[in-house]
Amino acid sequence: MKDFKISVTGDYERLVPFFIENELEFSEDEPVPTDLVKCWNIMDDEGEDGERIIGAFVLAKREGEFIVDGIAIDPKYRKYHLGKALLEKGIEETKRLGGKRIFLVARAPGFFRKQGFVTVPREDAPNFFECLTCPQYGVSCHPEVMRLDL
Q1: Quick one: how far is CA 98 from the chain centroid?
Q2: Residue 34 to residues 3, 47, 63, 105, 135: CA-CA distances in angstroms?
Q3: Which residue numbers delimit the N-acetyltransferase domain (predicted)?
Q4: CATH hierarchy code of domain 6-149
Q5: Which of 15, 16, 79, 145 has a Cα at 20 to 30 A from 55?
Q6: What is the pLDDT of residues 79-135, one digit of tens each?
Q7: Which residues pair with 119 in a beta bridge?
Q8: What is the C-alpha separation between 109 and 4, in angstroms, rounded?
Q9: Domain-wise residue ranges, the chain
Q10: SS3 for 94?
């Protein structure tokens, strides 16, 4: 199996197009201030175009709570369990910073349930559920607000 390296990155702007390519919704104008905590990426330098992002994770805070502001893995690399590895980085950092829980909006809730997350009502989470304005919401996407207690 190929050995992948997860690296901290300060280049959030480079991650946004990767998230959009992997069908995560990102808005330039977020209605609630979001503070970036830390970003990670996984690069592959064996592609035809040179080095490219194959995985990314953004840990942030909203309304004083830690949130997964983005997590995605290129579909060709999902068999390597890179999503779990990135999620573990975010959980470790949240614990290191004294966080007691972490929230996310899941398009793939089954994956997150396997990692210990539970579905919670939107009103029990910080205001980061911006899906209601997305044309995919309720049609091809049925996200769940989830929380992991640490």
Answers
A1: 20
A2: 33, 33, 8, 15, 23
A3: 1-135
A4: 3.40.630.30
A5: 145
A6: 999 999 999 999 999 999 999 999 998 878 999 999 999 999 888 887 766 655 666
A7: 146
A8: 25
A9: 6-149
A10: helix
Structure tokens at 38: 């830390």
Residue given tokens 């007691």 in the structure block: 100
Residue pointed to by tokens 């009502």: 121
- Give me 92's structure tokens: 């470790």
φ and ψ at residue 97, rounded to 5 degrees: -90, 5
> How far apart are the C-alpha atoms of 94 and 117, rounded to whole Å?
14
User: How do strand 50-62 and strand 65-73 relate by DSSP bridges?
Assistant: antiparallel
CA–CA gap between residue 126 and residue 120 (Å, rounded): 11
Spatial neighbors of 94 by CB under 8 A, at least 6 apart, are: 59, 66, 102, 150
